[in-house]
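Structural prep section.
Before we set up the soaks we want a predicted structure of the protein with NAP in place, mainly to decide which crystallisation condition to try first. Input record follows.
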Amino acid sequence: MTPSHVLVTRSLTAAAMSAAQRLLAPLVVLDDAPPDRAELLRSARGAVAIVSLLTEQIDDELFDAAGGQLRIVANVAAGVDNIDLEAAARRGILVSNTPGVLDEATADLALALILATTRRIVEADRFIRSAEQWIWGPKDWVGLQVSAGATVGIVGLGRIGMAVARRAHAFGARIIATGSRSSGPEAAALEVVPVGLDELFETADVVTLHCPLTSETRGMVDAARLKSMRQGSYLINTGRGPLVDEDALADALEEGRLAGAGLDVHENEPLVNERLRRSDRVVLLPHIGSAGAATRDAMGLLAVRNVAEVLAGRRPITPVD
Ligand code: NAP
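Run finished without errors. Recording the tokens verbatim:
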């Protein structure tokens, strides 16, 4: 492996790779698929910087393999739950992420999941593909109408949560939210009502998760939380899979307490819960929240620029504290 190289653990979009070739040399780029652990450790040896994806576990073992020259890990994601931040801090290795540039794309997807579940879009599509014949009926395929003033509960009114609030407001939803910005001026302009977590789960017709995965939030949506939700309500998760106890979610759906769920992220990613896979009321996506073309370019470019800043002796643009 080239000593003092920058390691890119998986190939990024063409725009991001061309910026990396221009700004970061020497460069070692692994394949499109996630590297196996041995290859990752071998390729990290002597690296001064690592551009990482959420599929890579960045921890003490990797830092040991890299050696003492490593200065920054630039994650191409807003979440940093794949990185042992404490280990990085202990070794003086900087960590950066890509917040801000993916808010609109991820909020678009959260809204798409809210509409897909409440209006039963995927279920209806499956029906029409399999039905030999069908006829319109006034009571068929009726679902919750967000635009008729349904209450959308946003857990974590941060960057993405606020972008979801803007969309939900435009749709005519009543919005309740947790997080420090829920009592700020932008939230007030969107008529957001700040509430505590318990009240949010007890009152919302649709609960949508936008907080990070941390030791505090892991398993936040457990059996008790699901039991506290309104009869016929919906759960949307574009945050991180382990926020939700998926077996408890499957129970709530099978018992008919929840009317539906939309999941972009999964508890044991890339594995998908078999009970949820079998449920018609669940829309399942392969973690595509940020997968807008412009956003994926912007995420890669920001990660590359974070590395370039650090190698030039400056602070990363978007450091993780
Ligand atoms: P952000 O701006 O930092 O907002 C995070 C929100 O979560 C804030 O409202 C924050 O409240 C709240 N929060 C933090 N810790 C919490 C806790 N322990 N309990 C309850 N709420 C808590 O983050 P963001 O940029 O919007 O991103 C949010 C998350 O979305 C990321 O961490 C990532 O996991 C996920 N994400 C997923 C995709 C995807 O492809 N599906 C794409 C992008 C991001 P305070 O303001 O009070 O701190």
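Observations: The chain has a mean pLDDT of 97.
Flagged for discussion at group meeting.
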